[in-house]
């Protein structure tokens, strides 16, 4: 399992941090300079500080969840925002809360090592409700799971839960990857995810937001530069995620056909997961 705190707070790496890494103070200074406040944040008014900080936080959000590079394309999911974690499920309980930082599940869930069981497929929540409605409530090893939002009041951010079918008949430890929701940058936790390699993309994202807000919603040069840098960052990230194994071309006969036949073949192309 990867070393992921669950808080969304990136760790600087201490003295080993690259001297070319971009940090919150750098982003704040560059945005402030662009807005005409100068680079010394200690000389700004509170309103100027708030303006620059708001542009930085929005710019980082835009980088973490970027727009499609071209019309019709799927937005990229960064490899560094795909933590892998575990969930322990127990007998007779088919509903479980997901982490507060959960954004979306990325792949089927797998069982403990050395088990030759098929991975748990992610299906629509209504499909599991339909199976339970028809009386299919026997307890055994789960084969399907669905994500659904929990009741939302506005007192906290949206949370999610996962439901399984069939209901577990024993304790199982499941492993899965998900898109993480991370916290804002601060002086205490200054480093954005992605590291030095994506620093210029993050900076241009922040400047693009500042430029758009300064010009009453009109996009300009920095938005164009952000898209150029984003394309380069996506290529770099896709290289990091490139897989040589393209799955097993097997025969799915004899498998459960409650839904469409399950195929073991799975593939990641350009950082995007397919089944």
What's the short story on this structure?
The protein is an alpha+beta fold.
Summarize the structure in words:
This protein has 275 residues and is of the alpha+beta class. The protein has two domains: 14-76 and 182-241, no CATH class; 81-180, no CATH class. It is built from five helices and nine strands, in the order ααββββαβββααββ. It has helices spanning 24-34, 46-64, 125-133, 199-214, 221-241, and strands spanning 84-89, 95-97, 102-105, 121-122, 144-149, 160-165, 172-180, 267-269, 272-274. The strands form three sheets. Strands 2-6-5-4 form a four-stranded mixed beta sheet, covered by helices on one side. A three-stranded antiparallel beta sheet has the order 1-7-3, with no helix packed on it. Strand 8 and strand 9 form a beta hairpin. Helix 1 runs parallel beside helix 4, helix 2 (46-64) packs across helix 4 and helix 4 (199-214) runs antiparallel to helix 5 (221-241). The longest helix has 21 residues, at 221-241. It is elongated.
Beta-strand content estimate: 15-25%
The main sheet comes to: 4 strands, mixed
Tally of strands: 9
The percent of residues in helical segments reads: 25-40%
pLDDT < 50 runs, ≥5 residues: 1-13, 244-254, 261-275
The total domain count is 2
Please tell me what the overall shape is.
elongated
Radius of gyration: 22 Å
Number of helices: 5
Average pLDDT confidence is: 85
């Amino acid at each position: 399992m990867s070393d992921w705190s669950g808080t969304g707070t990136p760790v600087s790496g201490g003295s080993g941090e690259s001297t070319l890494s971009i940090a919150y103070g750098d982003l704040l200074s560059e945005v402030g300079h662009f807005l005409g406040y100068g680079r010394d944040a200690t000389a700004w008014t509170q309103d100027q500080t708030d303006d620059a900080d708001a542009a930085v936080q929005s710019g980082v959000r835009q980088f973490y969840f970027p727009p499609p590079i071209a019309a019709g394309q799927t937005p990229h999911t960064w490899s560094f925002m795909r933590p892998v974690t575990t969930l322990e499920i127990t007998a007779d309980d088919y509903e479980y809360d997901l982490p507060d930082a959960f954004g979306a599940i990325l792949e089927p869930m797998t069982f403990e090592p050395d088990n030759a069981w098929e991975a748990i497929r992610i299906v629509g929540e209504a499909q599991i409700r339909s199976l339970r409605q028809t009386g299919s409530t026997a307890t055994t090893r789960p084969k399907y799971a669905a994500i659904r939002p929990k009741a939302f009041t506005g007192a906290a951010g949206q949370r999610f839960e996962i439901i399984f079918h069939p209901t577990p008949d024993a304790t199982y430890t499941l492993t899965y990857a998900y898109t993480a929701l991370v916290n804002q940058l601060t002086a205490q936790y200054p480093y954005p995810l992605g590291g030095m390699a994506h620093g210029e993309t993050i900076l241009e994202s922040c400047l693009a937001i500042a430029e758009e807000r300064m010009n009453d919603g009109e996009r300009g040069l920095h938005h164009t530069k952000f898209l150029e840098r984003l394309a380069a960052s996506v290529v770099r990230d896709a290289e990091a995620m490139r897989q040589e194994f393209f799955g097993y071309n097997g025969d799915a006969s004899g498998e459960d056909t409650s839904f469409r036949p399950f195929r073991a073949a799975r593939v990641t192309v350009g950082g995007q997961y397919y089944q």
